[in-house]
Amino acid sequence: MIPAAFPGLELLATAVVLLDSELQVKYVNPAAETLFAISRKSILHQPFPGLFADSGPLAGLLHQAIREERGFADQDLTLAPTGQEPLHLNCIATPVELSQAALLLELRPIDQRLRIEREEQRLSQHRANRELIRNLAHEIKNPLGGLRGSAQLLERELDRPSLREYTRVIIKEADRLQALMDRLLTPHRPPNQVPMNIHEVCERVRSLILAEFPEGIRVKRDYDVGLPEFRGDPEQLIQAVLNIVRNAAQAILGSRTDAASGLGGEGEIVLCTRVARQVTLARRLHRLALELQVIDNGPGVPAEIRDKIFYPLVSGREGGTGLGLTLAQTLVQQHQGVVECDSQPGRTCFRIVLPLR
């Protein structure tokens, strides 16, 4: 009866719980089932505070809100579902006048709110950086052409082969910079979406990495074989995942050759696929999403660039262009997905989340 009165509650990414005057649960939406990792059937008609190992003064606050018909907001509520890790929540309680319910609770994980804010900030910063780099690349391309042409003309006037080596260096470096500028200025090609399976992408990337790094790297599979097909551009997603995995392999091998790193043994990269439920991407709720984790046992992302690794020209590796992760992020965003990174010495995890339709 209650869900029929509020059909929109079923689609919300925010966890919603309706309680009666005795604080018994009369309704939970799917987001609340996911948050508390408990089915609707087992939570209905149970005292809400009794669902948690330690609910503190929550019961008193809820009774007071119902008695005084006055809601409250708690920006840092901690609840510990029995047998689970504590949840840090933003809670809003609102009295309602329904035949079976007296109080509506809205519960949002604080870490989820911070993740959404970080995603929006990253998208905004990415767009600004992209425009800056494109303008800069245009300015660099113009004198490059003149520099290369002058070197070619100079080479024709030189009689000594030893001097021509210098002009060849100028031409070669100008060509290298030209190629870099072309990569920065390449227009975004819309994804050519076809039905595909993420494990085909993982297997292609795995074979390429093992061929490129035949020693010192082991690539393990941890697949959820029940994942459904989705629509995407295989070549773009292969490129995105390849950039991330290649970054991991280069970081691992670089650390193994650095005696001061303290890391030894064989490098390991794990490709892990899972289904994620009730995921919010760009403020849109998706009931199902695909999650691909690239986990490595390398040295981790340096702390000074950890918040900037997706920015263009930011690299933690000597000689790196700093474009691989930027391109990976762009390609994933064109699939309405997101890339996140969590890193510490000995374990770095890049998490790609794509909506399943």
Domains, number = 3
Envelope shape: elongated
Radius of gyration: 27 Å
Computed structural class = alpha+beta
**Would you list the SSEs in sequence order as H and E?**
HEEHHHEEEHHEHEEHEEHEE
CA(first)-CA(last) distance: 29 Å
Low-confidence stretches: none
CATH topology heading of the largest domain: Heat Shock Protein 90
Beta fraction of the residues? 15-25%
Polypeptide structure, described:
With 357 residues, the chain is of the alpha+beta class. It folds into three domains: 2-113, 2-Layer Sandwich (Beta-Lactamase), CATH 3.30.450.20; 126-185; 194-355, Histidine kinase-like ATPase, C-terminal domain (Heat Shock Protein 90, 2-Layer Sandwich). Helices cover 41% and strands 25% of the residues. The chain has nine helices and twelve strands. It has a five-stranded antiparallel sheet. Strand 9 and strand 10 form a beta hairpin. Helix 5 (110-157) runs antiparallel to helix 6 and helix 8 (234-256) packs antiparallel against helix 9. The radius of gyration is 27 Å and the shape is elongated. The model has no long low-confidence stretch (mean pLDDT 81).
